[in-house]
Write a structure and sequence with these properties.
This protein is α+β, with helices and mostly antiparallel strands and 487 residues long. The protein has one domain. 24% of the residues lie in helices and 32% in strands. The protein contains twelve helices and 25 strands. Strands 6, 7, 8, 9, 10, 12 and 13 form a seven-stranded mixed β-sheet that branches. Strands 19, 20, 21, 22, 23, 24 and 25 form a seven-stranded mixed β-sheet that branches. Strands 2, 3, 4, 5, 11 and 14 form a six-stranded mixed β-sheet that branches. A hairpin with a 7-residue loop joins strand 20 and strand 21. The protein starts with 8 loop residues before the first helix and ends in a 7-residue tail after the last helix.
Length: 487
């Protein structure tokens, strides 16, 4: 059968085998202290000069939005973008077996895409300094393309999305990553995005607000609070940063922890459970979890109170739904209004990790969330907002939370506050942590398993296995694979 376009299977297979080594070279590619400083100056200049004005407005006063007189649901006048509706959730046998809440309905599949290209034999990523109304600092480092279907089909009547064409028709592109993943299952109802990485060979005009970065430069920025946005982190997590021989590609140095982490990225190094065993365990958790979600009018949620300016839980916990009016001249649309979710408190997500047979493993949680497409996805060991548990019974307190909060400084391998998606969530921040413990004994439960990093990378090639919070931590683990003196 003749190949009529794109890349033949042999070429694709060879490219897949070579990808981990190419990524390792990019992760080690610190061009110079001067180049690193220039990247920092570029980003800081974007933060200083980008205009953004966000003002709180009453929900009923949002331009181009309406409150359904029958249900109280919030929707856009076009019928597109997203809506805020109510749900009632029951999970028999769960610590909290029933609750109700507002949730974002956004049935469209968005595009989160990064273009990559080799310069002097080193892969570079085309990243964007993107302004979002919910961002801390306004601007954060984002994928090349970050767009909902409503945006890129022109419902907003704004400017076209730059570089989008590379991701909509990939038949003749060299695709490194292409997979649909969920977003926050507690705040979105069955929301998915296409996470895609495309390699180009041709010269591209680098538009204002975009810049080529090595993976090393992006990893440096990952260590800083509120710099690399959630959409970039989820795409970066999907990179095939695992393969036999990766230790040789990454080089020596970094101590015992890093050595165990790099071995964890090599499929031949072994794991506590086979991938087949993990897949059967996930299927079992999905089958056994009886999670039921029913639509409820937003105006009739029994535990939520509606004021002139917001919708809030009767306890003051969890989150509020607020309205904002936004002016951002650098965006495709310079001014708009929208509802947003504003969390009450800073979240905490953590991987507890340990060495098993000299290979680093992360303890994952098979977590059920109301908005998940397939009920359960693999989540971090701990995923919560600690303040929210003041109003819940002690048995609802997350397992392993105290171990993370009480970790000694020498156990903490990664700790940074990072922002959630700034287009829907207002200043939503999460501390992402990796904590190493000495022994794996007693940590596994019916809902927890030790998983090697190469197994997470493999699962990330498939939809709806690894949740967005865990993907952020996987990106952090990738960054920790590089010796500190190289980064």
């Amino acid at each position: 059968m003749a190949v009529t376009g794109g890349w033949g299977s042999a070429t694709v297979a060879a490219g897949e085998r070579a990808a981990p080594a190419r990524l390792a070279r990019s992760a080690l590619a610190v061009r110079s202290a001067a180049a690193a400083a220039e990247a920092d100056r570029w980003f800081e200049q974007r933060v200083r000069t980008t205009e953004l004005d966000v003002r709180h407005v009453p929900l009923h006063a949002l331009r181009d939005w309406h409150v359904d007189p029958r249900t109280g649901d919030l929707g856009h006048d076009s019928g597109r973008f997203f809506a805020v509706r109510g749900i009632d959730v029951t999970v028999p046998g769960h610590e909290v077996s029933r609750w109700n809440q507002p949730i974002i309905h956004q049935p469209e599949v968005g595009v989160l895409g990064i273009l990559v290209r080799e310069f002097d034999g080193v892969l570079h990523l085309l990243m964007q300094a993107k302004v979002e109304p919910g961002n801390v600092n306004g601007v954060q480092l984002s994928p090349t393309v970050q767009a909902t279907r409503s945006n890129y089909t022109g419902v907003h009547r704004g400017r076209a999305v730059p570089y989008l064409g590379h991701f909509l028709d990939v038949s003749r592109e060299r695709v490194l990553v292409d997979v649909r993943h969920s977003e926050q299952g507690a705040w979105f109802y069955r929301k998915r995005n296409r996470n895609i990485v495309v390699e180009v060979d041709e010269d591209l005009e680098v538009l204002d607000g975009f810049r080529w970065f090595t993976l090393a430069e992006v990893h440096r920025m990952l260590a800083r609070d509120d710099v690399v946005n959630m959409d970039a982190r989820t795409v970066l997590a999907c990179l095939p940063f695992a393969g036999d021989g990766l230790a040789a590609d990454l080089g020596a140095g970094g101590g015992d922890f890093r050595s165990a982490l790099v071995r964890s990225c090599e499929p031949g190094a072994g794991s506590a459970h086979t991938t087949g065993e993990l897949l059967r365990w996930i299927s079992e958790r999905r089958t056994r979890t009886d999670l039921r979600t029913a639509a409820v009018p937003l105006a009739e949620l029994p535990d939520w109170r509606r004021s002139r300016d917001s919708i809030s839980h009767r306890t003051g916990a969890f989150f509020d739904v607020i309205g904002v009016d936004v002016r951002a001249p650098d965006r495709e649309v310079a001014r708009w209004s929208q509802p947003m979710i504003r969390p009450c408190g800073t979240g905490l997500t953590a991987f507890v990790v340990t060495r098993i047979g000299g290979v680093l493993h992360a303890l994952v949680h098979a977590r059920a969330e109301a908005g998940c497409v397939d009920v359960v996805e693999l989540a971090p060991t701990v995923q919560c907002t600690p303040e929210n548990y003041r109003h819940l019974p002690a048995r609802a307190r997350p397992r392993h939370l105290d171990a993370v909060l009480g970790a000694r400084p020498d156990q903490i391998r990664f700790s940074v506050v990072q922002s959630e998606e700034g287009g829907r969530f207002f200043r939503a921040r999460t501390r992402n942590v990796v904590v190493e413990v000495d022994s794996p004994d007693g940590a596994e439960t019916p809902e927890h398993r030790w998983v090697a990093v190469h197994q997470l990378v493999d699962l990330l090639r498939h939809s709806h296995y690894v949740n967005v919070q865990a993907r952020s931590l996987v990106t952090g683990l990738h960054a920790l694979c590089v010796p500190r003196d190289a980064a």
